[in-house]
Amino acid sequence: MDMKKRIHLELRNRTPSDVKELVLDNCRSNEGKIEGLTDEFEELEFLSTINVGLTTVAHLPKLNKLKKLELSDNRISGGLEVLAEKCPNLTHLNLSGNKIKDLSTIEPLKELGTLKSLDLFNCEVTNLNEYRDNVFKLLPQLTYLDGYDKDDKEAPDSDAEVYAEGLDDDEEDEDDVDDEEYDEDAAPGDEEEEEGEDEEEENEEEEEEDLSGEEEEEDDLNDREVDDEDDEGEQLLQIHKCTRLMLFFIVHCFCFS
Fold this sequence. Notes:
6-stranded parallel sheet, Leucine-rich repeat, LRR (right-handed beta-alpha superhelix), histone binding, alpha/beta, repeat
């Protein structure tokens, strides 16, 4: 797919002025130049043209808001002086894997006063003696060269930083929501404790009911035993009375006979 068709595809029914990021990696540029990209992309902040066969950036349109430009794995060997004019606010430039052989090729980049990060991996210029020191001297505005600063401290991953910031924001939002919930209701832990206490109280009440039921049954049994004892006593008394009457009757009959 050529670059013009790829740009049309990437627009997705948007107008060029609505586009802030444009990725054209691995498409094909005719005659090694940028095609289909115009000044209408006035809001563009990120442009990636990795491995598209570029030999020059001379046809880059005026992109005042462009901050990050990916040109790695092309065949660019010079002509970088146009970047200061076309992309005056550029902060990140990746030229890795191009045909840059000496420091004079990147010297025009000193006109990019906002440039903070430059990548030249897999370029012949990196094989020069004291390459890093000389580049930092040539481009004093640089903070990072090939991912490291002057003290060999690794540069943070900008994408990871943005992602982390997004996570922090989400976490803060979640914390705010949680705080509001805590203000309105009890904390989950407290709810669990309350539920546990309620269950214990229910269990205690059930145990008390069981005990009271058992006590009532025992009382009923005791009452029945007492009633039975009373009945037996009355029966014995009746028998005793009957026995006495019979004895009295026998004695009386014996005396009169």
